[in-house]
Each structure stands twice: as C-alpha cells, then as structure tokens.
Specification:
Number of strands: 8
Largest sheet: 4 strands, mixed
Strand order of the largest sheet: 4-1-7-8
Helix content: 10-25%
C-alpha cells in the first residue's frame, strides 16, 4: 500500500501542471485505480473520502470494475458504490 502512496506522490511531484485529472472516493472502503502513464503502470489507492489529483498530461486508467478509460487530464473520476463514473 505504501508503494501506491509513494507512486501517487511521485506522479504529482513530476507533473506540476495546473490541469490534472482528479479521483474522488465517496465510498467507505479503500478503492484502487491502475494508472498507465508513459507506458508505466502504477496503482493509485484512495482511502475512504479521499480526493487525489493525478494524470496531468493524459493517461489510461483502469477502473475498479476493470474498464479501461483514456483521460486527457481534465476529468474527474468519482467512485461511489464501488462504481466509477468519469465527469
């Protein structure tokens, strides 16, 4: 789990962009997204109620149900009831 947190922080530190996608976990359980950026995969773990910015330059994200979505960096991924919606 710490590797996921460190990877997320590293992605944020390297990005430095004003625009980034964000993920909001509205569930009471921890949820994980798999982020593929520049060919490298990392896990983004979101605790209950946590919001994280990631993917400043576009990426692919695998949602909790296994769906793969392309993000440009301006979307919000909202997780509720174990289901993710992109807004």
């Amino acid at each position: 789990m710490w590797k996921s947190v460190v990877a997320a922080i590293a992605l944020l530190a390297l990005g430095g962009s004003a625009f980034a996608a964000s993920a909001i976990n509205r569930d009471a359980q921890t949820r994980t997204l798999v982020v593929t950026e520049g060919g490298a995969k990392s896990e983004l773990t979101l605790g209950a109620g946590e919001t994280v910015e990631f993917c400043p330059n576009g990426c692919f994200v695998t949602l909790p149900n296994g769906d793969l979505e392309a993000l440009t960096g301006s979307e919000t991924v909202e997780i509720s009831g174990g289901t993710a919606r992109i807004k």
